[in-house]
Each structure stands twice: as structure tokens, then as C-alpha cells.
Amino acid sequence: MENIYLDHAATSPPHPQVIEKMIMILHDSFGNASSLHSYGREARRLLDDARLAIASSIHADFSEIVFTSGGTEADNLAIVGTALAKQTQGKHVITTSIEHPAVLQTCKFLEKNGFTVTYLPVDQTGVVSIEDVRKALRSDTILVSIMYGNNEVGSLQPIEAIGELLRNHPAVFHTDAVQAYGIETLNVQKLNVDLLSTSAHKINGPKGIGFLYVKTGVKLAAGMYGGEQERKRRAGTENIPGIVGFAKAVKIVQAEMENNRERYRQYQQLFLDTLQAHDISFEVNGDLEQNLPHILNLSFPGADVETLLVQLDLAGIAASSGSACTAGSFEPSHVLVAMFGKESKRIRNSIRFSFGLNNTTEQIETAALQVVKIMKR
């Protein structure tokens, strides 16, 4: 039995070239980038080259990239860092009800510390209304944090339009682009965002490394204290192997982005066509015309998510009920609750399939046929 991995939105396998690059760095370039001797200078060169490549991938400046331990830390630094830096100007934050827990839980932390947070609703396709953002804005709003693409249903938010709305407002605009980076073309200048979070392990890079884009001039309180690394915003010796591996993954995914997007769209359609050909009843969660192409979230009427996941796993297929950060508890997805309400049956019968490196047309068809078998019995 072939094992088929369809949970790339949770994490993705490291690309072989990334692994090879990191092993070489671990072996040959172990210096501290803050050291002045030749070992340190070599580490600094590697760090600078990686920062430049990553900055270019989103049309940012070299100095606007702050390396973190991943998307969660990047989100925390963006939200708490902004709140602390701007708290004398106001204590109101706007976000949405479908954000990743790294954003939602950080906002809950702010609420416990005297800040007010507005959680905007979404429609049944998982998209926030620009008019709702406009109505929620106040004179004391200091931060708006809205994800670029949702990690559970793949819905894309109107980030560019929101950025335009905020152009004449003093609030800082942050987008969690962890799920979209490497799939969507991101241009921070065109989007008019001030802060943008990413993570390497979603694009076939290593775990434990990410970055936060910080627009020049944006005030941000430090997330860690100690040294003066990352322009005093994130102290600690830089993870050179992880950063170089991240940069390698970025270069690979940038070169293959358009081909990957087309391939994932084909996988989506093949999966749906296979289910339809066998008269399987299902509903798509989200709008396939406006979503991340590697994510397919399906509701199967009459099914149960726990049973489905167990049966899929026994068939060698790795899928998910939603965010990996809450997996294992089988609590209703907060994203689906926001889209359909607490009483909807979709929150108990929906599965997320997400595509990526090494998936083939044959694997997708096989996985869909296994779903057919499970649903028919």
C-alpha cells in the first residue's frame, strides 16, 4: 500500500536540495555571524545572501526582513510588537474570526492586557467584507491583522483593497501570509502592508525558521532581548543553516510557482471529478475561484470527521480536519463555525486535502477513490 501525503498545508516535506544545502552549511560554515574573524564573516555572508534573496521574493528591501523561529513567532512579534510600540496612540486592534491561532491567541493576550479587539465575521466563502473593515476602524485603531489566505479552506482575503483602505489611516496593517507564501505572488509594495509573516516549513523548507517583513519606518517593540541581532528586534544567534535552507526553498518555489499553481488546480478538479463520477455527495467549503489552489476542503453529508480521518489513515492517506495546531482534539473548526454557524453539520463532516511536493495525478485519483470506498460503506 502506497502512503499518500495530502496534508501539505500542515507542513511540507523538505526539498532534497534544501536538505543537501543545509547539511553542507552545518558541516562547513558553523561560525557565528556576529564574530569578526573569518568564520564569522563567512556566516555573515551567508546570512546576507539569504536575506537578500528572501527580500526580493516579496519585493522588499534587504533591511526589512526580520528572521524568526517561524510563523507563530512572526505573528506574535507583529501583533505584540505593534501594540507595545503604539499603545500611547490607542489600544484598538482589528482582526477576523478565521485567523490562525497564532494570531487569535495573541489577540486574546492583548485583551487580557487592556487592549480591545474587534473580530470581524466572514461570509460563507470565508471572506471578510471590506465594508466591515471600514466600519470597524476607529481613531484609536492601531493595528489591523488579516490573513492573506486561510489555512483551512484556502479563502483569499482582499488584502490589496484593505491596504488601499488603510492608506490614509494611521493603523499598522499586518497580514499572516504563512499559507500563501510560495503559492501566491506577493508584492508588499503593491499590497500596501506594513508587516507580513511567513514560515519555511510550508514551502518545503526546514521547520523552526520564518521571517517577518517590517516596512521601513514602522515602529515595532522588540520580541526578544539580549543581543542586537535582526536590527535589535529579535535577539539571539542567527540560525544560519535554517536561514540558508529557507532561502534555497524560496528560490526553488519561486521558479516553480506558476507550474505548481496549475498542477494544484488540476488536482482539485481531478479529485472533484472522481467523486462526482461515483455519485458521492459532497460540498466544497469555500470558493474555488478565489482560493489557494493547493487546498481543497470538502464536506461529506452524513459522515463524521473522526471516522473519516481514521479510515483515510488506515488506507495510507494523510489528510486533516483543519489546522494542525488544534488537531487531535477534534474540536469544531473555528473557521467553519465562522462560515456556517455552530449548528451546521459541516463543522463535523469536513476534511481538508492539501497538495504539494511529490504528489502525482495517480496519487490524487487513488486518494479520491479511497474516499469513494469509505463513503459507500
The CATH class of the largest domain, by name, is: Alpha Beta
Structurally, how many domains make up the residues? 2
C-alpha-based Rg, rounded: 21 Å
> Biggest sheet, strands in spatial order?
2-8-7-6-5-3-4
Q: Give the biggest sheet.
A: 7 strands, mixed
| CATH topology label of the largest domain | Aspartate Aminotransferase, domain 2
Backbone structural class: alpha/beta
Instruction: Kindly estimate the percentage of residues that lie in beta strands according to DSSP.
Output: 5-15%
Shape: globular
Give the termini distance in whole angstroms: 20 Å
Identify the CATH homologous superfamily of the largest domain: Type I PLP-dependent aspartate aminotransferase-like (Major domain)
Oligomer: single chain
Tell me the helix content.
25-40%
Q: What is the number of helices?
A: 11
Number of strands: 12
Give a quick precis of the structure.
The chain has eleven helices and twelve strands.
Task: Give a structural overview.
The structure is a single chain. With 377 residues, the protein is α/β, with parallel strands linked by helices. The protein folds into 2 domains: 4-12 and 257-376, Aspartate Aminotransferase, domain 1; 16-251, 3-Layer(aba) Sandwich (Aspartate Aminotransferase, domain 2), CATH 3.40.640.10. The protein contains 11 helices and 12 strands. The chain has helices at residues 16-28, 38-57, 71-86, 101-111, 130-136, 159-165, 188-191, 240-277, 305-314, 334-340, 361-376; strands at 4-5, 65-68, 92-96, 116-120, 141-145, 172-176, 195-199, 210-214, 283-284, 295-299, 317-318, 350-354. The strands form 3 sheets. A 7-stranded mixed β-sheet has the order 2-8-7-6-5-3-4, with helices on both faces. It has a 3-stranded antiparallel β-sheet with strand order 9-10-12. It has a two-stranded parallel ribbon with strand order 1-11. Strand 6, helix 7 (188-191) and strand 7 (195-199) form a beta-alpha-beta unit. The longest helix has 38 residues, at 240-277. It is globular, with a radius of gyration of 21 Å. The chain starts with a strand and ends with a helix. The model has no long low-confidence stretch (mean pLDDT 95). InterPro entries: Aminotrans_V_dom, Aminotrans_V_PyrdxlP_BS, Cysteine_dSase, PyrdxlP-dep_Trfase, PyrdxlP-dep_Trfase_major, PyrdxlP-dep_Trfase_small. Pfam families: Aminotran_5 (PF00266). Its cofactor is pyridoxal 5'-phosphate.
